[in-house]
Design goal:
This protein is an alpha/beta fold. It is built from 21 helices and 20 strands. Helix 4 packs antiparallel against helix 5. The two termini are about 50 Å apart.
């Protein structure tokens, strides 16, 4: 493959640290590189060096003649006086840019809902970020550098971006390097991974799943990385291997190697034990929303219905992810759960023992302790905390969340954004709520710290409700997903993929809103009756019937867990059996088929009940 650009013996120092020392690497035609590493280790700095925005103290960056390089970094600022159209396509006539399929795809994928003539100074921060990304992607580049491109994109937007980048260049052409904490995106887009650590850059083949496998193997062979970090990554690998098959499609080495590494790693969560603990702490009732609707008056004197006829019976130990576009009503729904929002219609019932805590996107909980040291803040909360069935001191919990001994004596105000985020979570957990709401918890965290946070949440026995655009995190820490679509609350037995299908149907079946009416592409897309699917979101059962159905769902899930264990034992029995005893093997096979048929029947019943529950 032809070389596009590269750095040779790069050395860079800042006043307080050496960032890179003797780093050599390059990007070739067809490379799709994900850059990972701890916050502050130099991921963004590396991209700026390669893109020519920053000069190294020693070494050099070379770019092949004629190669065009574009970059989106976290501080890109567009002229606030420009309109959306001017920022994205410049002064080109409409017939000129509209004839370019790449530009059409970018406009419809990122800014279709924005007024084409709106000034950038009038837009929100998230909208400006989308315009900046669209402006970059509308250009013709041979190499693109993206620094946190998924920020301010919802799940649908992240999926579109992954698809756009996958199809932007022909195979084995163009180059891409991306820094993001979105691990699903890394796996969907990248063919190689660079880990930035300890003043160097280490390459790995494959996306995030492949990187985790190789990193575990590297740590095991070298035996120089702390056992804590190695075990954490092994657990992360176990989740990846047990997850969707697509996650393991890209690694090009033997899957047996992964199985060998994780054969003694337990499942991420003991759901039966966590449910038992949750019931003992919460009682039978958590929060029940029964046929709840919420409406708000509009400026023109009308009424806007945000949620309608929502029934949601939250169970002890439930771990639910909530999806929906910005403005769909997710915050209103959570407000009903916490009591911050009162329903216009319907009934909200809360259990007597419920203690709700919310990890918000703001860090207001830390304002009053900004001058205090980290160790003092946690010491004032509790002396012990139960995790993995063991008592842990706050200091041990801080270590588990990546704090070093030096950082324990650091004032809270001097912590980085990611460190404050982790401290915020710890302070909430030390207050021992039994219902925890996480609102975009992955903000400001790198992939290592996300894995550490998820590992801690695995052992938390309460009810967990998560709102996030981070698809990987949702699938990792929750057991079921729901979506707020057109005011309805819809159960998603098919997970995020089903949500994306429903969101697509809703868009194509609904006329473009007035905000995007002046966008030349606002009304594009095939006409269909796709929105019809969202009407099915009305729960078919309510009250006692819904409770009975939910109990049956729980019973089925427990039975499935037992039968799955049975299948594994039968497989082991078959492997240990005398392979020349055909009659004995036939008997074992018959038993295996019987258990598998029972599993299939239970899964069908589970799906039926899930649909009835909406």
């Amino acid at each position: 493959m032809a070389h596009l650009l590269g750095g040779e013996n790069l050395h860079l120092e800042f006043p307080t640290k050496t960032v890179f020392d003797g780093v050599s690497l390059g990007i070739d035609e067809g490379d799709r590189i994900g850059i990972v590493g701890r916050n502050g280790d130099g991921k963004s700095t590396l991209m700026k060096l390669l893109a020519g925005r920053l000069q190294p103290d020693e070494g050099r960056v070379t770019v092949r003649s004629g190669v065009r390089v574009g970059m989106l970094d976290q501080t890109d600022v567009l002229d606030p006086e420009l309109t959306v159209g001017q920022a994205v396509v410049g002064d080109r006539d409409e017939h000129e840019w509209a004839g370019d399929p790449t530009v059409r795809d970018v406009v419809s994928g990122l800014v279709k809902d924005l007024d084409w003539d709106a000034r950038l100074g009038e837009l929100s921060g998230g909208q400006k970020r989308r315009v900046a990304l669209a402006a970059l992607l509308a250009g013709d580049w041979d190499v693109i550098f993206l620094d946190e491109p998924t920020n301010h994109l919802d799940v649908d937007g992240i999926t579109w971006l992954a698809r756009h980048l996958e199809n932007r260049w022909p195979k084995n052409q163009g180059g891409l390097a991306v820094v993001t904490h979105d691990r699903w995106f890394l796996d969907a887009v990248c063919t190689d991974t660079w880990e930035v650590h300890d003043r160097t850059v280490e390459p790995f083949e494959g996306g995030y799943a492949a990187y985790v496998l190789q990193r575990v193997e590297r740590d095991r062979q070298a035996a120089t990385v702390e056992a804590k970090r190695q075990n954490l990554m092994k657990k992360e690998l176990a989740w990846l291997r047990r997850g969707a098959p697509a996650r393991t499609a890209k690694p090009k080495f033997r899957i047996e190697a992964a199985n060998q590494l994780i054969n003694d790693v337990p499942p991420p969560r003991d759901t039966v034990e966590l449910s038992r603990m949750a019931v003992s702490r919460l009682g039978k009732d958590v929060v029940d929303l029964e046929k709840v609707s919420v409406s708000y008056p509009t400026e023109d004197g009308g009424i806007r219905e945000v949620l309608r006829d929502v029934t949601w019976l939250i169970a002890p130990g439930e771990r639910t992810g909530i999806l929906g576009v910005n403005g769909a009503g997710k915050s209103t729904l959570l407000g009903l759960v916490t009591g911050a929002v009162q329903p216009t219609k319907g009934r909200v019932k809360r259990g007597k023992t419920v203690r709700i805590a919310t990890l918000t996107q703001q860090l207001s909980e830390l304002d009053e302790v900004a001058e205090d040291r980290v160790s003092d803040v946690v010491a004032h909360r509790r002396s012990t905390y139960l995790a993995d069935g063991k008592e842990m001191t706050p200091g041990q919990l801080l270590e588990r969340l990546g704090f070093t001994n030096e950082q324990l004596s650091t004032p809270v105000k001097d912590l980085s954004g990611g460190q404050k985020r982790r401290l915020q979570l710890l302070m909430i957990l030390l207050d021992e709520p039994n219902v925890l709401i996480l609102d975009e918890p992955s903000n400001d965290l790198d992939t290592d710290m996300l894995a550490a946070m998820e590992d801690l949440l695995d052992t938390w026995p309460g009810t967990l409700l998560v709102v996030s655009h981070d698809r990987y995190l949702l699938e990792r820490v929750t057991d079921q997903q729901y979506a707020v679509i057109d005011g309805r609350f819809r159960h998603l037995p098919g997970g995020v993929e089903q949500y994306l299908e429903l969101a697509s149907q809703s868009r194509t079946g609904t006329a473009a809103g007035s905000a995007g009416a002046s966008n030349p592409l606002a009304a594009t897309g095939p006409s269909s009756n796709g929105a019809k699917g969202t009407t099915d979101a009305v729960p078919r059962l309510g009250g006692a019937e819904a409770r009975a159905a939910q109990k049956e769902v729980g019973a089925i899930e427990r039975k499935l867990a037992k039968l799955t264990g049975q299948v594994e034992r039968i497989h082991s029995e078959m492997a240990a059996h005398d392979q020349s005893d055909y009659e004995g093997l036939a008997g074992i096979t018959t038993r295996l088929r019987g258990v598998e048929e029972e599993i299939e029947e239970l899964e069908l019943r589970w799906l039926e009940l899930s649909e009835d529950l909406g």
